[in-house]
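Deviations from the work plan: none for this task. Representative record:
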Amino acid sequence: MTFTPLSAALFSLLAMVSLILVFVMLGSRWLNNYLYAFTAQCWVIAALSAAVGYYGGYPELYLVALFTALFRGLLLPYLIFRIIRRMAVDRELHEIIRPSSALVIGAALVVLALVVSRQVGLSLGQPGDVVILALTVMLSTKLIGFLMLAVRHEAISQILGLLVLENGIFLGSQILVPGMPLLLELVILFDLLIAVVCFSVLVNYLISHAGSTSSLRLRRLRG
Amino acid sequence: MTAVAVYLLVVLPPLATVVVSLSPVRASVATWCNLAAAVIALVASAVLTGLTISLGPTVAWGGYLLLDPLGAWTVLCVSIVYLLSSLYAIQYMARETAPARLPRFYALFAGFALTMFLAPTMNNPGLYWIAIELTTLVSTFLVGFGETRESTEAAWKYIIIVSAGITLALMGTLLMYWAGTFVLGDRYDMTWASLTQAAAKGDDVVVELAFLLILVGYGTKVGLAPMHTWLPDAHSQGPTPVSAMLSGALLNTAIVGIVRSLPVVEAVGRSGVGHGAMILLGIASLAVAALLIVRQTDTKRLMAYSSVEHMGVITLAFGFGGPLGVAAALYHMVGHSLNKSLMFFGAGNAAIVHGTKHMDDIREVLRCSPVSGGLWLAGAVAITGAPPFALFLSEFTTVRAGLASGWWPAAVAMLVLLLVIFVGFLNHFRSMYFEPRERVVVARSLGLLCLAPMWMALVPLLVLGVWWPASLQHVFDAVAAGLLGAGGATP
């Protein structure tokens, strides 16, 4: 795909907004805010799909954008909102590290992602700034997603952490491989939906059998 | 097209079982339907493996289905475990669960088998990823089926760790596809073959990064250390037939993704990195297993760590590569499938007879249950790699492959670690079998269906331990030719 200055600027803007939203999630301790930021990120990705479809000439991406907006942007947040309502907690109670420290670590992870992406870029010979940026956002979303999974304990935070991991991949793939088979993108969307339904059932199990939705309390099995 | 027809005979019976079990039927209907599906699937997958050799690999269903010797062999291993565990489940689950919940169990059980039959035959790496993700989603509910505090904890850890891990494999797959776009243009079919073909002229850094991500991603699902942390919990908390399926069948299907990605990194000229990383993870798994097997207190957790060990051996064998390494890995797959089923059934029987999974409370096994105990002990000797059982032959061949490919330090390390595991593993059995009993337990009797699957696993293990059939060697040669031919240069 070739980039015009306008399309490059638009893609970069959307990728950066998405990265900033990841930091919003990293910095918030209220589950609701976390969910809103996630929803916003899904809409940004839908916009990115549509933009890539328009400027790159991939009409099938309009369909992907539509499904992303519907499934990721509406249905998933609704399902997760229902899970939050069922639970007794509305924020992270036991933080391993404070949100402010998490933000600093997140920034360091972005730098790491940038170094790796530059290295890949050097090997490819100047692929253009948008490609480097997309790769950086993809890798750093991934790293920060893992950071959130590691330092947060509420079941909802872990589900959202997983979905953020997937969002990072999805965002990167829109810019790097817009020609990816349509079937695959749709199946992945569908798979996410099933996964969230499974999570929601498991959260019920956690509430009724483990008596808590915090993984800090899940420590019977070890060694 | 005959291969496709036979493949349908593998996947349709479990699908039918899911449908039947979800409709309001009696428990016995679901039970026998599941058993019939397992029998048909085993026969069909054996025929399928033969067909992929005689007819060569078949691509069908618009290029999404690939029936090649590697896929068929993995499907065969899955169907062996599926049949053994379905047999074992009949009495075991009737004893453990209320009849009303049994149809749900069999729906999940057959669905789990179905996803494992699908995954190894996916020609599109993305769809393979989806199939692996589906195996996780279905089996989570089997792990949590006991609905106790522990099994819920295990299910939650399983789904979170494995789902997070395999997103790395998805990213790796997309990066591999991206590397190909510089050669084949923006749009091309995503298949294992096209990725390999594109990589021959592609960028080595991207492909290398992609392969490492795939290795860590699917490695999580395979249970390679240090990504193995979910495995002992999930394998020990599920009902025993499920433990056998997770351990003997599921792990093999996940390793297929790594093995199919290996030719891509070979094609790009970085086979040293690919093989080296696999060998490193293999040795790490053996080391972790060796350290943790020694201090286990629970029979099923002991078996779970033994799975980490054997997945390490299979990864090492594929990492050593060459026809010898591939043959050793595939032989080890089927040996481990049989042997680990046997071990979990033995652990399940011991739990029935002695009323506990805690090894300190299991004593004088041979006196309490002579047949089951004897088979379990033979299985324990077999699984530690002692002759004359199948795993001895495959581990021996793995070491030969290591020496032949020049990775001799890894081969030596493997031997040392296997020795430690041998001592540590059998020491648990020594105390369970030959230490005097401190408290009196009322031993409960076992039904015939709790013993038959153990015989059905042990006899082939013994046969395969003294006789390496030429027909199997044809399969291994065909798999090796497919893998090494595709990648071009061998290390």
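Chain A has seven helices and no strands.
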